[in-house]
Amino acid sequence: GTTTVFAAASLKNAMDEIAADYKAETGNEILPSYAGSSKLARQIQQGAPAQIFISANPGWMDTLEKDGLLVDGTRVDLLLNSIVLIAGPGASADLSVKIGPDTDLATLLGDGRLAMALVDAVPAGIYGKAALSSLGLWDSVEPKVAQADNVRAALRLVGSGEAPMGIVYATDAAADPQVRVLDTFPADSHPAIVYPAAILKDGDSDQTRAVFAYLTSDAARAVFKAHGFGIAGE
Amino acid sequence: MTDWLGPAEWQAVALSLKVSLWAIGLSLPIGILAAYALARWDFPGKQLLNGIIHLPLILPPVVTGYLLLLSFGRRGPVGSFLYEWFGLIFAFRWTGAALAASIMAFPLMVRSIRLAVESVDPKLEQAAATLGAPRLWVFFTVTLPLILPGVIAGAILGFAKAMGEFGATITFVSNIPGQTQTLPSAIYTFLQVPGGETQAMRLVLVSVTVAMGALAISEILARRAAKRVSGA
Amino acid sequence: MTDWLGPAEWQAVALSLKVSLWAIGLSLPIGILAAYALARWDFPGKQLLNGIIHLPLILPPVVTGYLLLLSFGRRGPVGSFLYEWFGLIFAFRWTGAALAASIMAFPLMVRSIRLAVESVDPKLEQAAATLGAPRLWVFFTVTLPLILPGVIAGAILGFAKAMGEFGATITFVSNIPGQTQTLPSAIYTFLQVPGGETQAMRLVLVSVTVAMGALAISEILARRAAKRVSGA
Amino acid sequence: MSLTVDITHPLAGFDLNVAFEAPEGVTALFGRSGAGKTTVINAVSGLLKPQQGRILLGGETLFDAKARVNLPIHRRRLGYVFQDGRLFPHMSVRQNMMYGRRFAPRGASGPGLEEVADLLGLTAMLDRRPGALSGGEKQRVAIGRALLSWPRMLLMDEPLAALDAARKEEILPYLERLRDRAGLPILYVSHSMAEVARLATSVVVLEAGQVVRSGPAEQVLSDPALVHQIGLREAGALLPATVARHHDDGLTELSVSGGRLFLPHLDMAPGSHTRVRILAQDVMLALEPPNGISALNILRGEIVTLREGSGPGAIVQLQSGEDKLLSRITRRSAQALHLSPGQRIYAVIKSVAIARGDIGAG
Amino acid sequence: MSLTVDITHPLAGFDLNVAFEAPEGVTALFGRSGAGKTTVINAVSGLLKPQQGRILLGGETLFDAKARVNLPIHRRRLGYVFQDGRLFPHMSVRQNMMYGRRFAPRGASGPGLEEVADLLGLTAMLDRRPGALSGGEKQRVAIGRALLSWPRMLLMDEPLAALDAARKEEILPYLERLRDRAGLPILYVSHSMAEVARLATSVVVLEAGQVVRSGPAEQVLSDPALVHQIGLREAGALLPATVARHHDDGLTELSVSGGRLFLPHLDMAPGSHTRVRILAQDVMLALEPPNGISALNILRGEIVTLREGSGPGAIVQLQSGEDKLLSRITRRSAQALHLSPGQRIYAVIKSVAIARGDIGAG
Ligand SMILES: Nc1ncnc2c1ncn2[C@@H]1O[C@H](COP(=O)(O)OP(=O)(O)OP(=O)(O)O)[C@@H](O)[C@H]1O
Ligand SMILES: Nc1ncnc2c1ncn2[C@@H]1O[C@H](COP(=O)(O)OP(=O)(O)OP(=O)(O)O)[C@@H](O)[C@H]1O
Ligand code: MOO
Ligand SMILES: [Mg+2]
Ligand SMILES: [Mg+2]
Questions:
Q1: CATH number of the domain where residue D315 is located
Q2: Is position E227 within any domain?
């Protein structure tokens, strides 16, 4: 049998690997469907044939929970992530930035742009804005922000040299040799970046529970870690 | 080639072709009818129909997909009706992808065909009528052959659009490999993850190749049709 | 109305209009030229040109945006050339949004116009030549007026597409309020957050209203042009 | 089967206001360019919906504005040869010609493709497309297409204008045979008086949308008042005639009410009725029967009217037997011969001037 | 300015293979439907690029396959009146007619819009679009458009086919004046022998793509061998004539080499040269000069040849002065009069049979 897992797009590499492992181990298939968390959540609201949902955004999981679409008690915080400030290929090698309330990010940017995901809509952008705000940097930086529709697009803006710097997930930055991580935002500068997971009411079955259990198994955690994620609760 | 693309990717290619061909095949007759009606008839609500046909072009695809999800989804009014009466399910099936593709391609098809209809000289249709041919016969033996270049152009535009459609599809039917993961969805997914660009570009290449092939065929067909129409 | 939409949203409406009008205005002449060339001339690489023009339709918009970024970005070969020689910058500017919109709209425009060119009887152009008119004059006084309905159809298709374009635009020039935040970007943003639907639908309504207005105007213009062409 | 037309319709320069009765046979619509001929035919065919009036064919109402009757075009079954061709560009000549055949009702009959293609000289080009045909070839295909739909009536708008004299000579007798054999009524527009005189049983003269004269061809064409409408060179009389006998030297003798006429051999049985056209300009007048002259045909008559024109010409109308003849001579001759109404006179007609083309089997 | 055409081009049914010289004046292309007339004109205009050969106009090479010369259409400046109209549908009649004017080179001159519109009866419809014109009106606009472009030469493909006799009568003299005044050469296609005879200085007869006869109009038209090509009814001779004087009763006296002819008043100064056409069927033969007959014109002649046709007719060619006349009579008459070559004879010609339309100012 197959189990359909709706997963935030940024989980693709890790989930593909886990699905392959799972199949090798059990012979059963995990069918992942990747898209933005908001899309997936809406589809679940409309009765999508998914059994498990992993969101990059606790907000959408809250919505589904309120709608009563989750199997009670199955929601867990599965993964953690952090956001980092990155520089592109154009930046001089000795550029180093330490993020703090005194960082003059606006000056560092010059007439360049700071690439972020949509700061009011996409999780990575929301976290980034929260971090900059709490550090008191937002007001000076805001006019220089270029918002992309997702983290990868923001990463690409930096990687291609279009924007000198950007704010992205650590997982994304780690995988792109074009960019260099300047610094990680302090964990307390923004709400914890967690990826909640849950079993959906329509999809509850033994098999689903087995897959869900596998996702929290050590084997799966190792894979997630290898892709740069943190494990919630560790 | 089989090595070059993984099975999931081949699946996406096959699915995209299936979805696009069905999308065009089924919507073409309706498109021709709509184009003919807009070009030749006057009826109340004509401008409204024209506007509705253009909507998918005007709206961001995500919105179209969202509206499709709301109306054709399992819980949506149209979706539940179709399911109860005809057993038709669109949501999260390849049929839904085809529906999304055909709706996105529809305005392109209709415009092309409508232009072609408008350039057919009604005098020829009148001549056919004086020879005793009823309207429908005139349509199939005179009008349709004469608008064929426009129909082909519309079909190929629509096919290309269907092959490239992504926003509405992923929003409406999600991105489930083998079921609703079309080429563009697969490309999108690759672009979402670190290091996915190369794989994405490989799929882009496949997509471009398929579409170019279709384009070339359509050009040949259209040229042949146009030659017939010019009467030489 | 001013209360109904916030200033940022008004900005988005105004920007979308500006971007779409520029996109169509500037690409229309090129579109007419390309359509004419494809319809009437034979030259090496014709099929290639045809293919390239259709690419933005075939590719998922994100890919088009990405390719635009690679070539028209500051470091891109075309982008750096244009900057050095003409001081033109596309990245993060509304000009880039217009470029993206025009490239996405281009295949739609070209197809419509090309169909119209193909339905112009070359005998009329020949007649003009026998009266002493050089080619360019023939084009502007005979061909162009006769293809006007097609040009208008192409322009309105393109305009509608430009108003709805989102994927390529946001990927290429991102989303900077007042600079590159067009209506679709704003709509998309609202749709990303739980509970944003109402606001999104408000903007959808604005977008639909604007586009329907444009559509209605184009219908009137096209009808007038078609009436002239029919010679009555 | 007769056609009744009584319609009013506004046009650019004037109102079309036409009422006439077209009896069996060929009714010619005659009039200057822009007089409204095509418009009338369009109304009969159903392509134009007149503002007012009605159109009846053989008792059936095709159109009646008051009764809101408007028979659809395809149910009228009128074979229309358009002034502007209108061939289907995407079909071969054969397909064009056979297009209407399947709509002929069961039991209908008419000429076959081979026969018509042969008549029209199209046999060699049946598989070509109309785009690469010459002007006259296109026109012939259009004629064939209308004939082969086996219509109840033919509407022909200058069908022979683009054709050479020889081809016309082949097609005209065929139309005559159709008219006579199938009783096929024909509404015929032509600028050529020769065609009209030959084919028409009845003539309707239009001027700026109004009927200025209509009636049997013999009457209309020999009306001296219409000479200027018809054109000086084309004016002439139509005479009913009977084939008397065939002579060994190839001449055919016809008897007309005023005497005998000799013509090049006619392929008609003795006793059959026909009519001949004698152009006013082909009739000389002589006070005495001339001798030693190559003209074989001399009819005795009496001058009815003598109309002097504005120029140096004069039109003389003669009574010869029961028929009226027209003669166009110079005023000088009229004076030299002291012509006056009531005078006895001889009309000298060159036999060959009564050309084959002017003999209708009517 | 003379035109030299020598081209080869493959067509659907045969190869076009045409060589002729068109001197100043009007050259008529005559031939049956599908003979290749339009194709020749297209080649001259540049619309068709012949496979082989060359085309020269007044010493300038328009086309030369070997030398790879092919002057672009718009630089040829030949006013083409198409067989199929080709009006610009989106322009008013006025705009259509004035379209070519701006391309006339500096220093060129020609008729004005008012003059041409008046001649063609288009003044009232200058602001209408071609779509709502009648067939003949369209054709007239096409003629006007070509004239008003002030071309170096006119190419006219059946320009008058859709027009009524009266309108033709107005346009033909105008074309003659153009031909004479501006020395404008005209290549003219027509199925009407009357038009050809009236206008043409030289005639080229085409048959299935080949030139079967070409030369000065007088020679070609009075060649008894071509009677069947031209059509029996249209055969006739062209005679050069000089205006002798005008009589008070409205007749004009012409002198031809064989004697005198009387015609309805001609608007030409005494002494001016012209030519008259005498149809074979309008010429009767008499052994003695007849008396008391309305025919004014009697020429003395001598029989040159006597050709009996397959039918009951015979074509007699006469020498009258320096000119040759044709007469078409019945065999019976020929026998009754004992006609034989060398015989002295009188040709009786009805004065009015030499119609205005057949007098060219050539
Ligand atoms: N659609 C129309 N609207 C208004 N007027 C028209 C329309 N079509 C034709 N006319 C005018 O009506 C008049 C009669 O046109 P019609 O075509 O009946 O003439 P016709 O007798 O057939 O002439 P022709 O011998 O030149 O073909 C013309 O003056 C023409 O300009
Ligand atoms: N494009 C073409 N390709 C091949 N054959 C052609 C083409 N156009 C015309 N023909 C043929 O060439 C022949 C000559 O055509 P053309 O148009 O010159 O005739 P025409 O003498 O003008 O006849 P008409 O008096 O009927 O107009 C015709 O038999 C015609 O079918
Ligand atoms: O695709 Mo996400 O929801 O922006 O990680
Ligand atoms: Mg007409
Ligand atoms: Mg021709």
A1: 2.40.50.100
A2: no
Total number of domains constituting chain B: 1
Residues D217 and D268 in one domain: no
Whether the CB of B198 is below 8 Å from some CB of chain A: the reply is no
Amino acid (one-letter) located at E11: L
- How close is the nearest chain A Cα to the Cα of B212, in Å? 28
Rounded distance between C-alpha atoms, residue D219 and residue D244, angstroms: 24
Chain C positions touching E77 (Cβ under 8 A) are 132
C230 contact residues in E (CB cutoff 8 A): 89, 131
**Which residues span the domain enclosing D305?**
236-361
**Residue B211 with chain C: CB contacts under 8 Å:** 54, 58
E201 and E252 share a domain?
no
Cβ within 8 Å of residue E92, ≥6 positions away: E126, E127, E128, E129
Tell the residue nearest (CA) to atom 2 of ligand 3.
A36
**Is residue E184 assigned to a domain?**
yes
Residue D155 and residue D7 share a domain = yes
Residue with the nearest Cα to atom 14 of ligand 1? D36
- E313 forms bridges with which residues in the sheet? E330
Within an 8 Å CB–CB cutoff, is residue E95 touching chain C? no
Touching check for C196 and chain A: CB below 8 Å?
A: yes
CB of E177 within 8 Å of a chain D CB? The answer is no
| Alpha-carbon span E355 to E174, nearest angstrom | 17
Q: Chain A: give the shortest CA distance to residue C40, in Å.
A: 40
Q: Are C54 and C197 in contact (CB under 8 A)?
A: no
Residue B2 is assigned to a structural domain of this protein: no
Place of tokens 């418009």: D39
Q: Which atom of ligand 3 is nearest to the CA of A37?
A: 3
- Note whether residue C195 is domain-resident: yes
Indicate whether E38 and E177 sit together in one domain.
Answer: yes
For the stretch C193-212, pLDDT in tens is 777 788 888 888 888 888 88
Mark whether B and A touch (3+ CB pairs within 8 Å): yes
In a domain? residue E230: no
- Render pLDDT for D37-84 as a digit per residue (tens, 0 to 9): 999 999 999 999 999 999 999 889 999 999 999 999 999 999 999 988
The span from the CA of B64 to the CA of B103, in Å, is 9
Q: Which of E157, E187, E221 is the last residue of a domain?
A: E221
- Pairing of β A83-87 and β A76-81: unpaired
Q: What is the CB neighbour count within 10 angstroms for residue B226?
A: 18
Provide the number of structural domains found in chain E.
2
pLDDT grade for D312, boundaries at 50, 70 and 90: low
- Mean pLDDT score, B21-36: 94
Query: Is C1 within a domain?
Result: no
Other Cβ atoms within 10 Å of E359 Cβ, number: 23
**CA-D32 nearest atom, ligand 1:** 25
Residue B141 to residue D99, Cβ atoms within 8 A: yes
Please check whether residue D276 is in contact with residue D259, taking contact to mean a CB–CB distance below 8 angstroms: no
Chain E nearest-CA distance from D300, in A, is 14
Amino acid at E20: F
CB contact under 8 A, A46 and B193: no
Residue of A11, A39, A69, A122 to mutate when probing chain B, most B C-beta within 10 A: A39
Q: Could you give the ipTM of this predicted complex? A: 0.84
Span from the CA of B69 to the centroid of ligand 3 (angstroms):
20
Chains C and A physically touch (3 or more Cβ atom pairs below 8 Å): yes
Of the segments A103-117, A201-215, D38-52, E157-171, which one has the largest average pLDDT value?
A: D38-52
The answer to the question of residue D332 being in a domain is: yes
CATH of residue B104: 1.10.3720.10
C187 lies in which domain range? 7-230
Q: Does D284 touch chain E (CB under 8 A)?
A: yes
* Structure-token pair, residue D60: 């059936």
E169 and E51, same structural domain?
yes
Give yes or no: residues E295 and E331 share one domain: yes
pTM, 2 dp = 0.86
Structural domain contains residue C2: no
Rounded Cα–Cα distance for residues A222 and B146 (Å): 65
